Amino acid sequence: MDRRVVITGMGVVSPVGCGRDAFRAALENGVCGIAPITRFDTAGFKVKVAAEVKDFDPLTYLSKIETRKMDLYARYAVTAACEAVEMAGIAGTVDPAEFGVYYGSGIGGFETFVEEHDTMLSRGPGRVSPMFIPKMIGNIAAGHIAIRFGAKGPCICITTACATGTGAIGEAYRAIRHGYCEAVVAGGAEATIHPLAVAGFQNMTALSLSEDPMRASIPFDRDRAGFVMGEGAGALVLESLEHAEARGAEILAEVAGYGSTCDAHHVTAPDPEAEASGRAFSQALKEAGWSSGESVYVNAHGTGTPLNDVTETRAIRRAFGEEADKVVVSSTKSMTGHMLGAAGAVEAIAAVNALRTGIVPPTIHLENPDPECDLDYTPNKARKTDPTLALSSSLGFGGHNSVIALRKI
């Protein structure tokens, strides 16, 4: 059974805006969500900036009691999921046994983990909260979403580092396509702008040390020197085309292909030959029925690290061959920072928006092109290109590569 799969709902919590409309407008206008860190005192840290979520109100969808029982990452996740389900109008229209959740986090309840560890050291084991485990575990966002909407089909937590969000969408697509579900809430969430997490990423030399927010996250620029920590959540409602049409839902785009591979090369560095990552692009393109001459947009992983951007450029060239120079590419991480496990989900939403509006978001602050990064990266300003096919790619620590293909419908 190979069914067509479509997207009918989207929800976003991001550093450039909470809510899908604010998110879309910010990307189209090249708004930068990076600023000096306010969550903690950065004295003693080399890293001074991050892409924090601003103006987030968990009480939009959650009660005060629910909020207290959730880590920040789960609050982001449930909020994004509620917006997506509300947009889709799917609640009550699908058999609970056919309604799934494929939702992940790269790290999970980091803030809760550290807080309760500190409590144990300072006050003893008897004072550790009984909510510690259910607030901290990485699968609990998926659990909360399933409980909220009575989704009794498969509830799967994807954890593939920076590829989490894309992998969750891809696996949800396969579950619906092959008849295991009728509809799925898919995506990812992360909340790790915390001293310990920043120190860890800083000391492995992954983060940008620039104190200028406008020159910190600069994918494909020859002066790039690391990524900027971001946070937030993205959620999409996927369902079979037949189910969406039967209930008269608005269809936003079609999920037409998925590629998933592993470099099997290094715990953090991508394989510079881009064999496996290029194959993930090729798998998604083949399944989507890509043809030469088609107008294509790629929302690249584009972290702004020296190795990633060159490797991803090679992966795109491997997949598209002579057509690569015609492909329009951009990295929205230049605006949102790297949202880790949430990145793939919000970037998939950016790709859907590009298909719906015809406007490709820019790679802002791309001032000094790297000769080794030689594709069309949509520098600095959004551009109307009217793509009919969009790819969103994510390349995670551990060598995880995930690419989804989306079609205008």
Question: How is this structure best described in words?
Answer:
It is a single chain. The longest helix is centred in the N-terminal third of the chain and has 17 residues, at 72-88. 33% of the residues lie in helices and 19% in strands. The model has no long low-confidence stretch (mean pLDDT 98). The protein has helices at residues 20-28, 64-68, 72-88, 110-123, 132-136, 140-149, 164-177, 195-203, 241-246, 275-288, 306-320, 333-336, 343-357, and strands at residues 5-14, 17-18, 35-36, 49-50, 99-104, 155-156, 183-190, 232-240, 253-262, 296-299, 328-330, 359-360, 383-384, 389-396, 400-407. Helix 3 runs parallel beside helix 6, helix 7 (164-177) packs across helix 13 and helix 10 packs across helix 11 (306-320). The chain is built from 13 helices and 15 strands. The strands form 3 sheets. Strands 1, 2, 5, 6, 7, 8, 9, 10, 11, 14 and 15 form an 11-stranded mixed β-sheet that branches. It is α/β, with parallel strands linked by helices and 409 residues long. The protein has 2 domains: 5-246, 3-Layer(aba) Sandwich (Peroxisomal Thiolase, Chain A, domain 1); 258-407, Peroxisomal Thiolase, Chain A, domain 1 (3-Layer(aba) Sandwich), CATH 3.40.47.10.
